[in-house]
Design goal:
Layout: H1 4-20, H2 28-40, H3 50-53, H4 57-179
């Protein structure tokens, strides 16, 4: 029985080292342990060392199943990490493309805003130019109306002057007839 106890202790140490080490890099002692263990089994699947100690084949099958399950768990967690990493990379790529699209749209909107601002500036310049042109036009119209009024006055004065000349000529004739 004392020879059985140290062997079990070694097995638990080996199992602990298997679960603590990463699955991708087994140590040389682990390989040797597996090889030794496989070589101890006979064709029936029972260990040569198990028979004298009274172990049954169901115990060894259970142990084999547990070891296989542990390996599957390690493989599945590794695959899960790989899958999660791949998903994270894919999500990052999606986010990067969305960011690029957003940057492109932002640049497009900025250029549109700049165009609108330039139009607004031109329109405000035009409106200020239009206002000054309106003021000039109003001043010119006022000046034209003043000149038209002066022209009317001048034509009236010309007509008055002509009338006075005609009257003066008529008076001169009348005085000359009276003086003869």
């Amino acid at each position: 029985m004392s020879s059985y106890y140290p062997r079990t202790k070694d097995l638990t140490r080996t199992r602990k080292s298997l679960t603590e080490s990463p699955p991708s890099s087994p140590s040389p002692t682990d390989k040797n342990y597996r090889h030794d263990r496989l070589s101890r089994y006979d064709s029936s699947g029972e260990s040569a060392t198990d028979k004298p100690l009274g172990r049954t084949s169901s115990y060894t099958r259970r142990e084999t199943r547990l070891a296989a399950l542990n390996r599957q768990e390690q493989d599945s967690t590794t695959k899960d990490y790989k899958k999660m990493y791949a998903e994270a990379l894919h999500e990052n790529e999606k986010l990067k493309s969305r960011l690029q699209d957003s940057k492109y749209e932002l640049a497009k909107i900025r250029s549109q805003l700049e165009k609108v601002t330039q139009r607004h500036d031109r329109i405000s310049e035009r409106s200020s130019v239009l206002e000054s042109e309106k003021r000039e036009k109003q001043a010119l119209e006022k000046r034209v109306s003043n000149m038209e009024d002066e022209l009317k006055i001048l034509t009236e004065l010309k007509s008055d002057n002509q009338r006075l000349k005609d009257e003066n000529g008529a008076l001169i004739r009348v005085i000359s007839k009276l003086s003869k």
